[in-house]
Amino acid sequence: MKKTKRPAPAALGYRMPAEWETHEATWLSWPHYTKDWPGKLALIPWVFAEMVRKLAGSELVRICVASPAVAAQARRVLEAAGVAARHVELLPCPSDRSWIRDYGPLFVRKGGARPEVAIARFRFNGWARYRNWQQDNAVPERIARKFRIPLFHARFGDRPIVLEGGAIDVNGRGSLLTTEECLLDPVVQARNPGLGKAELEQVLRDALGVSQILWLRRGIAGRDDTHGHVDDICRFVAPGAVVLCQEKFRRDPNYKIMGENRERLEGLRLENGSRLEIIPLPLPEPLLYRGARLPASYANFYIGNAAVLVPTFNDPQDRVALGLLAELFPGRQVVGIHAVDLVAGCGAIHCLTQQQPAR
Asked: CA-CA distance, 125 to 191, in Å (whole number)?
């Protein structure tokens, strides 16, 4: 008997909500992998605790813990940080790393009289860079089974598609931001070799319910393990507006990168045909660790129900970035989270969080 092909999420009315839409929960994965933060791992749980403290209360925080020992540490640290246990769920879930934005479930939502949430399940392969990714790749299925959430595999034909959550950003109305460097490079960290722009756009439309794909060229300069994730350079802050990182020093490689991306954005249109409002967001001064430039960026913020968590770097631009984002999110508390240690792992707050929309 011929197997019937299951309709894609978009055909069933699902779409990926914008991050500022109401959450049921925020997901994290408690840190445990030494090589992600060489020489700094002991500091990272306390940064996680501060993130959880600022999010808990306005939404549930669900935390994947890789082992009983990791769970015990999480309880100790969260209790010491004053986080109420009733706002947190610790869930046994083996993982290789803590960057749940990239391997965790991408939630989509269908409205109507009885709203439903499902998972658009993309494959994860360690950013086409690392070998230990198999446990991370299994996380979406684990969460789907635990919470009985429908799961749809993102495919082109019979081929599973690789995509990380940090590679995209959506406005919830049909437009999606990404970069050619991350999704289309045929040689460096090639996620889906042999597939071009048209094929990937079709998958994104089918899986996430978007209609307009906005392609930037390149991601941030420095040691960027992701090879061009958009959440370090450009983010939607409203259905018709984005913040785009801006470098003021001409000799800095980010000056050219961000200038090219701004030119791209100025020529693009949203799903309704309108132009984008482009709001410049400063970059901190180059941050080095063990001789390598880190991908330090204020664009790696996370929008919670009541708070916006913004990475800070002991930099004069911290105050500027926090003030700008406070103006853009007047109904939320904009909170700086010290991220000098976090970004030593080549990621920051957005990379470590994943929103689950309310039903």
From this structure: 8
Q: For residue 356, give the nearest of 55, 51, 113 by alpha carbon.
A: 55
How many C-beta neighbours within 10 Å does residue 11 have?
A: 10
Token pair for residue 204? 């994104």
Q: Domains plus CATH for the chain?
A: 9-357 (3.75.10.10)
Q: Are 354 and 26 in contact (CB under 8 A)?
A: yes
**Distance separating alpha carbons of residues 19 and 169, to the nearest angstrom:** 8
Could you tell me how far CA 78 lies from the centroid of its own chain? Answer: 23
Q: What are phi and psi of 69, to 5 degrees?
A: -65, -40
Q: Is the pLDDT of residue 67 over 60?
A: yes
Q: How far is CA 260 from the centre of its chain?
A: 23
pLDDT grade, residue 57 (50/70/90)? Answer: confident
**Alpha-helical segments (H) within the chain:** 44-55, 68-80, 100-103, 134-137, 139-147, 180-184, 197-208, 253-267, 317-328
pLDDT tens-digit map of 120-147: 999 999 999 999 999 999 999 999 999 9
Sorting pLDDT into bands at 50, 70 and 90, what band is 4?
A: low
Residue length of the chain:
359
Q: What percent of the chain has pLDDT over 90?
A: 96
Phi-psi sector, 127: left (phi>0), alpha (psi -120 to 50), beta: left
351 noted as active-site residue: yes
- Burial grade of 157 (CB within 10 A; 0-12, 13-18, 19 or more): exposed
Of the given ranges (107-116, 156-165, 330-339), which has the lowest mean pLDDT? Answer: 107-116
Spatial strand order of the sheet with 234-238 comes to 234-238, 241-246, 277-282
∠ CA 233-105-298, rounded to 5°: 20
